[in-house]
């Protein structure tokens, strides 16, 4: 008889799934430009010079170029004032060649994130971070124009792996505006019973242990041990944490919020870090930009 330690989870290959989606998007972009003579445009705004933000932004810009989306690069200095940044957003709102606008987070402390995100035109909010888009996500019977990219990527990974959500117990670890909260709302819309664990939760282990689906987005390296996972559960690891690793040239490596090795022995499905949710986030951004361009160019309407 197989002992629990022989159990082998299916590793969800986010990178491969993202590549498939990328070629579908590239085909659609080509089709759109042949038929209408216009290409989708994405403005990526970065303020300051945080290393991690710069690396994420360059990944997004490179991905755009690869599928034929025109990337508008807006690099602003750390000291830029809130009103200058909002002025830039307004300019992009009225530029007909720009179909999507992304303001990379976090912003410097002197800038009010919510104020800036609220100024992005709803039709161009490809990050899905506009308060009205999030509000609609939270309400029954309302559909936001765009779903936030990381949460949308998590659900896409589940559905492409054949994991159903309806009626399942889902536990989300983290409640941030960009991941934890919207992914909880999406799971709820998909008819899961959702519990949210955060930094004040008493005994997170026993709550997580009940989950059929775990979404880990706490930013705590390898916090979730194998013994916290119900055998057969689907584990989606959003965490992207750099930890010191002197054996690497870079001096660090990326780990998730889940102990991947242990999870592989217990879970039914598990996503790796890197190569899981991260590449899907980028793909969902391209997809949202394509949808925004279709709406603007051919008046395409799609319920999300
Ligand atoms: N792969 C991808 O595409 C993306 C990956 N990420 C990664 O996901 C992780 C989360 O990002 P983000 O949501 O922006 O992070 P935040 O720091 O904004 O939020 C973290 C959340 O986790 C909760 N939390 C922190 N520590 C614990 C703990 N010990 N137990 C339970 N809950 C805890 C916090 O609780 P409280 O609210 O009480 O403070 C908070 O709600 C990071 O590693 C980030 O790098 C983020 C975006 C995209
Ligand atoms: N306005 C805004 N929108 C965002 O979507 C947004 C943001 N701000 N701020 C920061 C977070 C973080 N984020 C990631 C995107 C891709 C990977 C990704 O592709 N990761 C690769 C590894 C990348 C590497 O090797 O460094 C992977 O997991 O395989 C990770 C994290 C988007 N974010």
Write up what this structure looks like.
With 304 residues, the chain is of the alpha/beta class. The protein folds into 2 domains: 36-121, Rossmann fold (3-Layer(aba) Sandwich); 148-278, Rossmann fold (3-Layer(aba) Sandwich), CATH 3.40.50. Helices cover 41% and strands 16% of the residues. The chain contains 10 helices and 11 strands. The protein has helices at 14-36, 51-67, 82-94, 113-119, 131-138, 149-160, 180-189, 204-208, 260-266, 277-298; strands at 10-11, 41-47, 70-76, 100-103, 169-173, 193-197, 213-216, 234-237, 241-244, 252-255, 269-270. Helix 2 (51-67) links the parallel strand 2 and strand 3. Helix 6 (149-160) packs across helix 7. It starts with 9 loop residues before the first strand and ends in a 6-residue tail after the last helix. The model has no long low-confidence stretch (mean pLDDT 95). The structure holds NADPH dihydro-nicotinamide-adenine-dinucleotide phosphate (NDP) and 5,10-Methenyltetrahydrofolate. The site of NADPH dihydro-nicotinamide-adenine-dinucleotide phosphate (NDP) has 26 residues, from helix 10.
């Amino acid at each position: 008889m197989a002992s629990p330690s022989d159990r082998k989870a299916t590793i969800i290959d986010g990178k491969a799934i993202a590549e498939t989606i990328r070629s579908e998007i590239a085909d659609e972009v080509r089709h759109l430009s042949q038929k209408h003579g216009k290409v989708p445009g994405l403005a990526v705004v970065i303020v300051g010079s945080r290393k991690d933000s710069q690396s994420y932004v360059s990944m997004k810009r490179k991905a755009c170029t690869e599928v034929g989306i025109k990337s508008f690069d807006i690099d602003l200095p750390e000291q830029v004032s809130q009103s200058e940044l909002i002025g830039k957003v307004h300019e992009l709102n009225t530029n007909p060649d720009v179909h999507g606008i992304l303001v990379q987070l976090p912003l410097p402390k002197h800038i009010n994130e919510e104020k800036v995100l609220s100024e992005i035109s709803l039709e161009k909010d490809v990050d899905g971070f506009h308060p009205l888009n999030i509000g609609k996500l939270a309400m029954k019977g309302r559909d936001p124009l765009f779903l936030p990219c990381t949460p949308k990527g998590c659900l896409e990974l589940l559905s492409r792996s054949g994991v159903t959500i309806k009626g399942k117990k889902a536990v989300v670890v983290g409640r941030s505006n960009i991941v934890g909260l919207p992914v909880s709302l999406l799971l709820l819309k998909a008819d899961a019973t959702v519990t949210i664990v955060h930094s004040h939760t008493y005994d997170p282990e026993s709550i997580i242990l009940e989950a059929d689906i775990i979404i880990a987005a706490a930013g705590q390296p390898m916090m979730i041990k194998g013994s916290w996972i119900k055998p057969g559960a689907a584990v989606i690891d959003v965490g992207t944490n750099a930890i010191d690793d002197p054996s690497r040239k870079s001096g660090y490596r990326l780990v998730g919020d889940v102990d991947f090795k242990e999870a592989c022995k217990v879970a039914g499905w598990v996503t790796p870090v890197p190569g899981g949710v991260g590449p899907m986030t980028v793909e969902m951004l391209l997809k949202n930009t394509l949808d925004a361009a279709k709406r603007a160019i051919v008046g395409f309407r799609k319920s999300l």
